[in-house]
Design a protein that fits this description.
By secondary structure, the protein is of the alpha/beta class. The protein is built from 13 helices and 17 strands. It folds into 2 domains: 125 residues, Aspartate Aminotransferase, domain 1, CATH 3.90.1150; 240 residues, Aspartate Aminotransferase, domain 2. A hairpin with a 2-residue loop joins strand 13 and strand 14. Helix 8 runs parallel beside helix 9 and helix 11 runs parallel beside helix 13.
């Protein structure tokens, strides 16, 4: 790169940073990198460097950045119809709904624009049905994350995120993670409208809730006529080695929520209402201007096709095991305490509180990883990641946490 070209890039990057600091609400602790393009497992920064991406937009670009089939479908749809509102039927939305219903084993779908909106719809289903059954409480799990709207934040098991807004709202109850006795006691008090959980808690650092705990929660919902909600926003659509993570635990939820990876990087949310939840909402109960529009719908159809490619789930599991192996080496070395994984949703807790330092070092060396706390590193690579790319990240970690750490 010539000196002039590099100078221009620095000026562009500085200008964007200045505009961001001056005009964008400061709700994000941004990392020191401006991304300008991406393809597959890599992104390019404004500095002209290429980075291997194991963050993947927080499990959004599950089939890589700018997948050519997604790009082609979006271009074609944009040239035909961008928006017409949900007052009118569009084919992509209807087809995506049918595909999702098939994946989930039945159900009807409400489309929105994000995971929080998908969960908000699930909570409205539960609360409306609760007015008919006498159930008013939403039971949720400690350390969970379901969104940042008032309703979904009320159901998020992180008091530090709730407190600044005077939350949770009345009618929300948190139970400890993996504590079946506390869960049973909550239902025994009566009046439960729904139980909501992530099969694997993602934002708090990849904590699988496990089959035994979630099966107990489902049984309690059945015994108490409550809605059983699975938040698959981060775990769904292949991330955990199956169409939905709940399928790996043998569960049968009443409501399944999706977003993130469904449209290959475009904004979309989906709430699949099944069983007792399928016919709760009627015309006028809920709505959205943009949800399920034809452009994200066209992208979602491609993603659902990619999800059906032979051998995908086996490859996800194999790749997850390979990454887990590198992290286990850190445990054996004494640099990490534990490794948690389901499919290609992987995390490790470091012995020292240097996870954010590792993230910064990774940027300097062209590797993007994510820290969910001072000690926890989370890895969400594309499902298409190669063994060589996994090894590159593993070698980076070993260099700074294993033999290479002073």
């Amino acid at each position: 790169m010539s000196g002039t070209a590099r100078k221009n890039e620095i000026e562009v990057e500085a200008r964007a940073s200045q505009l961001d600091a001056e005009y964008v609400l400061p709700t994000y602790n941004r990392l020191p990198l401006q991304i300008v393009s991406g393809r597959g497992t890599e992104v390019v920064g404004a500095d002209g460097r290429t980075y291997l991406d194991f963050v993947t937009g927080l499990s959004v670009n599950n089939f890589g950045h700018c997948h050519p089939r997604v790009v082609a479908a979006v271009r074609e749809q944009v040239g035909r119809l961008i928006h017409c509102s949900n007052l009118f039927l569009t084919e992509p939305q209807a087809r995506v709904a049918a595909r999702l219903s098939g994946l989930a084993g039945g159900g009807r779908v409400f489309f929105s624009n994000s995971g929080a909106e998908a969960n908000e719809c699930a909570l409205k289903i539960a609360r409306k049905r609760g007015t008919e059954t006498g159930g008013g409480r939403i039971v949720f799990v400690e350390h969970s994350f379901h969104g940042r709207t008032i309703g979904t934040l009320s159901a998020t098991g992180q008091p530090s995120k709730q407190a600044p807004f005077g939350l949770p709202l009345p009618g929300y109850q948190m139970v400890p993670r993996h504590d079946a006795d506390a869960l049973r006691a909550s239902f025994a008090a009566g009046g439960v409208a729904a139980f909501i959980a992530e099969p694997v808690q993602g934002e708090s650092g990849v904590h699988p809730l496990g089959a035994e705990y979630l099966q107990e929660a489902e049984t309690l919902c059945r015994e108490n006529d409550a809605i059983f909600i699975m938040d698959e926003i981060q775990t769904g659509l292949g991330r955990c080695g199956a169409p939905f993570a709940y399928q790996r635990y043998g569960l049968n939820p009443d409501v399944v929520t999706l977003a993130k990876s469904l449209a290959g990087g475009l904004p979309i949310g989906a709430t699949i209402a099944r069983n007792a939840a399928a016919n709760v909402l009627t015309a006028g109960d809920h709505g959205t201007t943009f949800g399920g529009g034809p452009v994200p719908g066209a992208a979602a159809l491609v993603v659902l096709d990619l999800l059906e490619e032979p051998g995908l789930f086996a490859r996800v599991e194999q790749a997850g095991r390979r990454l887990e192996g590198w992290l286990q080496r850190l445990v054996d070395k004494g640099a990490a305490e534990t490794v948690r994984r389901l499919g290609l949703m992987v995390a490790t807790d470091l012995v020292e509180p240097i996870a954010r330092e590792i993230v910064t070092t990774g940027i300097q060396e062209g590797v993007l990883v994510n820290a969910t706390s001072e000690v926890t590193l989370r890895f969400l690579p594309p499902l298409t990641v190669s063994d060589e790319e996994i090894d590159r990240v593993g070698e980076f970690l070993w260099r700074h946490l294993g033999d290479g750490r002073q």
